[in-house]
## 1
Amino acid sequence: MTLPKLHVAVLMGGWSNERPVSLMSGEGVAEALESKGHKVTRIDMGRDVALKLAEAKPDVVFNALHGTPGEDGTVQGMMDLMGLTYTHSGLATSVVAIDKELTKQALVPHGVPMPGGRIVETAELYERDPLPRPYVLKPVNEGSSVGVAIVTDAGNYGNPIARDAKGPWQEFDRLLAEPFIRGLELTTAVLGDKALLVTELRPKSGFYDFESKYTDGMTDHICPAEIPDEIAEACKAIALQAHRLLGCRGTSRSDFRWDDERGVEGLFLLEVNTQPGMTALSLVPEQARHLGMDYPDLVEAIIAEALADAKARGGEGAE
């Protein structure tokens, strides 16, 4: 699809923990669109976002927000009501995919391999471990490894976890507890209806947390990953299956852990990101580049799918 020259509103910023990443993503997108000759209105989302969008009257909105309320269905619902065409997934998909518990409920019955575990009340952690150590604690509805803790026997959180130990239990009332899966961190991007590549992420210290993701030089990206073909194909198949089952649009990114001592049985999907980062260090642009698609073309491809999807649904920007 060849794009005409468009007026694109790039929605970025917001007030989630991922605001700095969103600002970097949004500026990168805006510059790429301007390099292609499109008119761009940058909008740093505040409580007056609806007014700013109404005043801008864009042909399409590029949603470069990460976390809540830009990735959880809130902004999507607002733009649906306004009749705006926008990139990435719609309201229903966003509500489910931002919530790790709902994502499991949607995917596991269809055979998608995901770790076990359960939701725990934070107060319970100060009395007993919810799972045998080692295990992982993470917020139910945050992305970019925000608030993730790996609890081990050798860790310094205490046993049971001490109330004054720094961790996600100090910020969230409920957490998802999952068994820790040893092995490799893998990720696969989907663009449109095609899985791209598999990247292995090797943090130089600790694990692939928020700082490792967005600090240059702290994580090595092995793209394509140096893994057996059957594991690479399994990652791509699962990522595409999850993208379709959740009803994702545009692009998504599926994150995996692979226990390389167990073969394909050791591969587990951790989560699906419906609005993956578009920064210089982000994984979707990197995978697209390895396949011969430069950054501005990737941005246009995401917009082209949003326009085509809106046209297929009768010209409405809503789900």
## 2
Amino acid sequence: MKKHISLLAALLAVTLVWGGNPDRQGEAGAYELLLNPWARTVGLHAMNTSLVRGIEAMNTNIAGLSRVKSLEVGIGHSIYLQGTGLALNALGMAKKMGENGALGVSINALSFGKIPVTTNGLPEGTGATFSPTFFNLAVSYAHYFEKKVSVGITLRGINESLADVSAFGFSIDAGVQYLTGTETYPERFKFGISLRNIGSPMHFGGQGLNFSTTNPDGTQSYPLTYEKKAANFELPSQLNIGAAYDILPDEKLKLTGIFNFTSNAFSRDEIGGGLELGIGNLLVLRGGYKYELGTTATDANKSVYTGVAAGLSFNIPLRKGEDQAISIDYGFLHTRTWNGTHNIALRINL
């Protein structure tokens, strides 16, 4: 218990020195790292820091990866801001390693559709199209101690590119989860902290940033090629602190209350809560609300999200009396403009 308390105290100390600078809001890049492709997490507005498990933990709190039973494979698809043509696709796998460890691999890719090519001479389009490539690959490991405390770390490679311009970077995620309760319900209270997207600055480079002009001295006329230096940009780092409590702890009808605080280094902090209701092992309903601190109802700089999220999961057992199952998840985020964000995922637990 002393070790557990010391670990939690150290993580809480980090929160005291963590804080975003309001003057830097909107200055980060690679914001696709904050888009979550997994429907269960989306249904709670990504506030499940304390109770996320399996492959979804690689995009929320990596410590939850250690809770995977044996093998979990999942695919996720998101219609991001319906009406914009943007989509997010994900593939993840988590495997139990030894008695207390788990290894996970995931890849997320953002699809922009086909964008018309325009030029100064042809502002209406040349007839050609292009599509940027934005993807990130993550390798994760998590470990739990005495089934009370679990810790994890993720190493992620980030790529953003066009045909002649690209940027690449690395990031690290880390997290911890703590579970406790009574002898009858040993996991009734859940607490979690995650630190995400801590990594190297990124910048764009390539032939697309080069331009040609004549020599500047004027004595002779010959062409010169110059390379423009693109400015560095930081990753959208964030700190999440969450807690959850099983109000109704029975497995036949399980109701969990959820609370979460998010500190963003390059945007306003957020706070919120939600509920998750499990009906047996077949159906789970969830919903939540997240509030962006420091905003008003008429604030033009508010996030596109209204704060409302909802979702559900259907679990189809593969064998009676065992944890093996196929799950279909759906999550929805309401937005002030466009038609919301829709997520659907298919998971297989073996």
## 3
Amino acid sequence: MEFILYPANERGHADHGWLKAKHSFSFANWYNPDKMHFGALRVLNDDIVAPKMGFGTHPHDNMEIITIPLKGKLEHKDSMGHSSVITTGEIQVMSAGTGILHSEFNASLTEEIHLFQIWIFPNKKNVTPRYDQININYAKAENNFLQLISPNETDEGSWINQDAWIFINKPSKGTEITYSIKKEGNGIYIMVIEGSATIERNKLLKRDAIGIYDTTEVCILAHENSEILIIEVPMVF
């Protein structure tokens, strides 16, 4: 088993007034050659966007993009013809493929939106762009691995063009959970969204993360009621 620690206080930070962002991996004006990606996981941004503000129309291509609102509502428009609002309890998935244009704005006039945006390198290039937006029953994550993303169209949650999985687990205090790797050669990036946990003898606090590879399973012990994000990705892609 090999692992890389990603302390919360070592993330990149950008404060544009209307946008406060924490970058787990090099992004925009923040560059760290030691934090470019973890396997096929390229971006994990932890963003807070002020009311009425957001990202104007901009392009993406050949990337799988997953947006998870933690609090608030996000207004989305894209060149595929989609116009929608994504709220807490939903996730949005885009396969950028041959290229898309989209915009993202806080849909509230009075409240901030807090969201995670995840980018994963695809296993197929230049696919036809695709959009998905689904409801997530987070009650199913109580002491359970709730699947948000997989490679399979027929599985729970949504799917992407990569042999990758994303789960949320909300273990209660004192609970030990074991995650089993879905595909040989994959690694897992685990972030403590809320609470604290020991993961393979490493104690992690809120927003701390760890990348683990060369193993078949990982044990997580929650020290308090917690929320854990698990992203399994190929290490070679």
